[in-house]
Write a structure and sequence with these properties.
The structure holds 2 protein chains of 2 kinds.
Chain A: E1 3-5, H1 6-20, E2 24-27, H2 44-48, E3 53-54, H3 60-72, E4 76-81, H4 84-87, H5 91-98, H6 101-104, E5 114-119, H7 134-138, E6 144-146, H8 151-163, E7 168-173, E8 180-182, E9 196-199, E10 204-208, H9 211-224, E11 230-234, H10 243-253, E12 256-263, H11 268-279, E13 289-293, H12 302-308, H13 312-323
Parallel strand pairs in A: 2-3, 2-4, 4-5, 5-7, 6-7, 10-11, 10-12, 12-13
Antiparallel strand pairs in A: 1-8, 9-11
Helix pairs in contact in A: 1-8, 3-5, 9-13
Chain B: H1 2-32, H2 48-55, E1 63-66, H3 71-76, H4 81-88, E2 112-115, H5 121-135, E3 142-147, H6 154-165, E4 170-176, E5 179-180, E6 183-184, H7 185-188, H8 196-200, E7 204-209, H9 213-228, E8 234-239, H10 260-268, H11 271-276, H12 281-304
Classes of the chains: A alpha/beta, B alpha/beta.
Chain lengths: ~350, ~325
């Protein structure tokens, strides 16, 4: 299997779905533009025409209703928001309408829309360009919410979402976009339910969402240096949380650290712990730990943002504390740049 | 003779504001590659004629609300340059204590009430400020700046409606620079002036060449006077063009979404050149050197300022905290 970047996998999924089904549409401000939503829609208007791949006005609220209306008549629109924060303007048609269209009309209506929301981070994205609001949407019955962490899931989930008759919200973390991984060339759906164990371990379970999966895998490698064998679960799908995979893992390990890209309060990490407490209580040998954003808006200054975002070290500290280890943690890996506000040296703002 | 002198005083004042904005942003553009200003930064070079013209029709007590491209609005209203640069550098001495960056400038003392990058989000807030001010019988006018893209948001129309019904002292200033990020106006809106929304919402409106600071100033003066007399809001559409990329320190003609000939044609209509040519060369040089002094002072201040300490991270979440 060849490797693709996360962003390339998204582009390929959309391209293949546009080719596969004439009802698929792609829309959003900047979709046909020269930078093509960080490369994820580049060239698609040229390939599939300006009827099906469209730029939109800056009208998130109305355009979501428009997508819903088109989907009611059989279209399969994919809407893109360059930042989650802009999608907040479309809460009404998502929460009151699309999520309920099927239920409140007694199953007579369908709202097969796909809404891609990109979580910004780094280079001072600040309070209004970096929110991670997945729990808002996962809270609403009638929506499916997924957070791919690997390129093949990014592709597979878009395929499944387009074919699904329910509205699906896909959260894509900007810091995943440049990461590569194997992606099948064929149309290969990833189910919209179910977590995935990415690393087997017997001592502690680290369950993570989205970009925190990358930090979790890194933490697991580092924990191995002090003899801790961590299992890493990519939660992937939030509606519902996969309690079966968690239960099987906790049966082995008995300890849990949950990492999410959002805040803890009323959030995904809290939901995971609630589910575990209800369904896997007897497996637990100690209190679960959350590694999430502190309960404050994102600060812009790099001097503050560096303290705001948790990383693999925080996961290691949480695991260390959960297991009540006596051995010290290994030294931190060398930092590649002065600030931790970029995922790699090629990411030099303004985005 | 007196009239000519008055006109020249206005020109000189407008020129001074525009040059300060232009030079400050050029400095940002030059320094950005040091990677020390680590925040998204939307430069307004080319568009200075609008905020200069508007602000010179305002008093200090009047208020301004803005969006993502706010440096010019802030400086024209008299915002402190040192704390603006410090904010861009993420420093504790910044106007938002490093919490906001370029997209969230604020200087309440001069009436610059805040800026936010979500399209149209401060329009309704500005209308609310005008409402409060009117309820309290304060003689304050509110300017809300936004781009052509923001007029596609429902909240713009909802706010305009409310302001018109209550005859609030608001200037809705639409800086139409033809692009929302990279998306051209003609794929987003039909062919009609944005100023036509004024009629639709029952308020006065004007369509003005935004690169003619004198013309903007004249339109603003009339609108401000009407607002102060209780005659309600005005929608001003000012046409203009940005020279730099949507976000960042570089030009972006290479991206291909707009042409070099289009940019060149707008540069022929540069708002600074158009006024500068009517004044003496000496005066222009003096303005440039005095601006540069202020800017260098601000840059030095910003660079020398400390970063916020860790305890600042949790501060300001709620009042009192």
């Amino acid at each position: 299997m060849r490797d693709l970047k996360f962003s390339e996998a998204i582009r390929e999924a959309q391209s293949q779905m546009l080719a596969d089904d004439p009802n698929v549409l792609l829309m959003g401000l900047g979709v046909p533009g020269p930078t093509g939503i960080f490369g994820t829609s580049s060239g698609l208007q040229e390939q599939f025409g300006s009827d099906r791949v469209i730029d939109t006005p800056s009208s998130e609220n109305a355009m979501t209703g428009v997508a819903l209306g088109a989907s009611v008549l059989g279209k399969r629109p994919i809407m893109v928001h360059m930042r989650v924060d802009f999608a907040v303007l479309s809460m009404e048609p998502i929460v009151n309408q699309a999520a309920k269209w099927h239920y409140m009309y007694g199953g007579k209506m369908r709202a097969p829309i796909v809404i891609r929301m990109i979580i910004g981070r780094g280079w001072g994205q600040g309070p209004q360009h970096s929110q991670s609001l997945q729990s808002w949407f996962a809270h609403v019955p009638g929506l499916k919410v997924v957070m791919p962490a690997r390129p093949l899931d990014a592709k597979g989930m878009i395929i499944s979402a387009v074919r699904d008759d329910a509205p699906v919200v896909i959260f894509e973390h900007r810091w995943l976009y440049n990461l590569s991984g194997p992606v099948p060339e064929e149309i290969t759906p990833t189910p919209l339910e179910g977590a995935q164990v990415l690393r087997q371990g017997k001592d502690i379970t680290i369950a993570a969402t989205s970009y925190m999966v990358i930090e979790a895998l890194k933490a697991a490698e580092e924990l191995q240096k002090i003899g801790v064998d961590a299992e890493v679960i990519d939660l992937r799908c939030l509606t519902p949380i996969d309690t079966y995979t968690l239960d099987a893992s906790l049966k082995k390990t008995g300890y849990l650290v949950v990492a999410d890209t959002g805040q803890e309060a009323c959030g995904i990490a809290a939901e995971v712990i609630s589910q575990v407490a209800q369904k896997s209580f007897t497996h637990l040998k100690g209190a679960p730990k959350c590694v999430t954003l502190p309960h404050i808006p994102t600060p812009t200054s790099p001097a503050l943002a560096d303290h705001f975002y948790p990383d693999y070290r925080d996961l290691m500290t949480a695991a260390h504390s959960a297991l009540d280890l006596q051995v010290p943690l290994p030294p931190a890996l060398p930092q590649k740049s002065q600030w931790r506000d970029i995922p790699d040296p090629s990411f030099t703002g303004p985005y | 003779m007196t009239h000519i002198k008055q006109m020249n005083d206005v020109r000189a004042a407008l020129l001074k504001t525009m040059v300060l904005i232009r030079r400050a942003e050029q400095r940002i553009s030059d320094l950005y590659s040091e990677y020390e200003m680590r925040c998204p930064t939307h430069l307004c070079s080319g568009q200075e004629g609008i905020c200069a013209g508007i602000s010179h029709a305002l008093d200090t007590k009047d208020m301004v609300f803005s969006g993502h491209r706010s440096h010019g609005h802030y400086i024209a209203k008299g915002g402190d340059l040192r704390s603006m640069f410090a904010e861009l550098y993420g420093k504790q001495t910044g106007c938002a204590a490093g919490k906001g960056g370029s997209q969230h400038l604020i200087d309440i003392d001069c009436g610059f009430m805040g800026a936010a990058p979500i399209l149209s989000s401060t329009i309704s807030v500005g209308v609310g400020a005008a409402w409060s001010s009117k309820l309290d019988g304060l003689d304050q006018v509110v300017v809300v700046y936004f781009g052509d893209g923001a007029t596609e948001e429902g909240v713009f129309h909802e706010s305009a409606n409310f302001a018109a019904v209550h005859k609030l002292p608001v200037l809705f200033v639409c800086e139409n620079n033809l692009y929302s990020v990279h998306s051209a106006l003609d794929v987003r809106q039909p062919e009609r002036p944005i100023s036509a929304f004024g009629d639709a919402h029952g308020m006065d409106s004007a369509l003005v060449d935004g690169n003619d600071a004198i013309a903007v100033h004249e339109v603003a003066r009339v609108a401000v006077e009407r607002a102060r007399r209780g005659l309600g809001p005005t929608l001003i559409e000012a046409t203009t063009y940005r020279y730099f990329e949507h976000c960042g320190p570089n030009e972006d003609i290479n991206l291909g979404y707009r042409t070099a000939s289009e940019a060149d044609a707008w540069r022929e209509q540069d708002p600074i050149t158009r006024i500068k040519d009517q004044l003496s060369e000496n005066l222009f040089s003096e303005i440039v050197s005095s601006s540069d002094l202020v800017i260098e002072n601000a840059v030095e201040f910003a660079k020398a300022s400390p970063f916020p300490e860790l305890d600042q991270l949790y501060k300001h979440v709620l009042p009192g905290g």
